[in-house]
Design goal:
By secondary structure, this protein is α/β, with parallel strands linked by helices. The protein contains 7 helices and 14 strands. The chain has helices at residues 37-50, 88-98, 127-139, 173-182, 203-229, 242-246, 259-272; strands at residues 2-7, 11-17, 23-26, 29-30, 59-60, 69-70, 77-82, 104-105, 116-117, 145-150, 153-160, 163-171, 234-238, 254-255. Strands 1, 2, 3, 4, 7 and 8 form a 6-stranded mixed β-sheet that branches. Strands 9-12-11-10-13-14 form a 6-stranded mixed β-sheet. Helix 2 links the parallel strand 7 and strand 8 (104-105). The protein is globular and about 55 Å long.
Length: 274
């Protein structure tokens, strides 16, 4: 069984895959929790049991002084897509201590020429964007693609002939909400909801409508600019509030939930086929 981790600024998502790449279960853990490999394992084990998944079965005491260690492993491989490098060490320890496997961290260096980079462009593409591209390439093989991922930041990535052509980054919905709350004296921190009208009648609804429609407007304009560069590009959105916002943007061709999670398995297949 493959265990994947999608580590973002807001949440850590553990994902269990069957041998065909189907997601059997996934969970969300706040990224800002303080944990060790031991507490992470306990959380993971308890969450997995709610879905009747045994992450390992039997124990054997290896010595009088050593802690119990798993004998039969249900989890054989671990792949990590991390955008928060300072906690990566915890996942390395988790794999070694409890599953006797070395977690593989997603990067451009691990996928050879599956995503080509233009000459002169830095190779700094994050794991979250790599997995989006890998999944989109499999689903829409051979097509030019514009991938929009609504996360803490909203990212745009353009792919043509398996080559990364470039992209951009803008503040996401929750980042915009936090910016208003943290940098003003009286504006409250709100929970984002899709507004029914642009005419907000109080502070909360005015923040909601302002953030929602400013995102819609910015994304429409950016898509138009990308279409000027590569008119045939097929526009995909994913992540966070992607569905709510994409519904208001006719130039988004399709919303695909869990695109990044699908991409983690695509990365895993590339590693197994090396």
């Amino acid at each position: 069984m493959l265990l994947g981790f999608d580590i973002g600024n807001t949440h850590i998502v553990p994902i269990f895959y069957d041998d065909n790449g189907e997601i059997t279960a996934s969970f969300r853990i706040p990224t800002d929790l303080k944990f060790t490999e031991d507490t992470l394992f306990i959380m993971l084990k308890n969450l997995a049991e709610t879905k009747k998944i045994n992450i390992f079965e039997n124990y054997v005491i290896t010595s009088l002084y050593n802690s119990t260690k798993p004998k039969n492993y249900d989890v054989t491989d671990i792949v990590v897509s991390s955008f928060v490098p300072h906690i990566n060490e915890v996942f390395e320890y988790l794999g070694r201590k409890f599953f006797r496997t070395e977690p593989v961290f997603i990067s451009l260096d691990n996928i050879n020429d599956e995503i080509k980079i233009l000459e002169g462009m830095e190779r700094g593409l994050g794991a979250d964007r790599i997995v989006d591209i890998l999944a989109a390439k499999r689903i829409y093989s051979g097509r030019s693609l514009l991938i929009i991922d609504f996360g803490t930041a909203t990212t745009f990535d353009m792919i043509k002939n398996s080559t990364y052509m470039g992209g951009c980054i803008i503040p996401g919905v929750n980042l915009s909400i936090n910016a208003l709350f943290n940098n003003t004296a009286k504006l409250p921190k709100i929970k984002f909801e899709k507004p029914s009208t642009v005419l907000g009648i109080n502070t909360v609804t005015q923040i909601n409508s302002g953030i929602f429609y400013s995102n819609v407007g910015a994304i429409k304009e950016l898509i138009a600019k990308y279409k000027e560069e590569i008119p045939e590009s097929y526009v995909i959105s994913t992540g966070g509030q992607g569905k709510e916002i994409s519904d208001f943007i006719p130039s988004v061709d399709e919303y695909i939930p869990n695109l990044g999670e699908k991409g983690i398995f695509e990365f895993y297949k590339l590693q197994k086929n090396k």
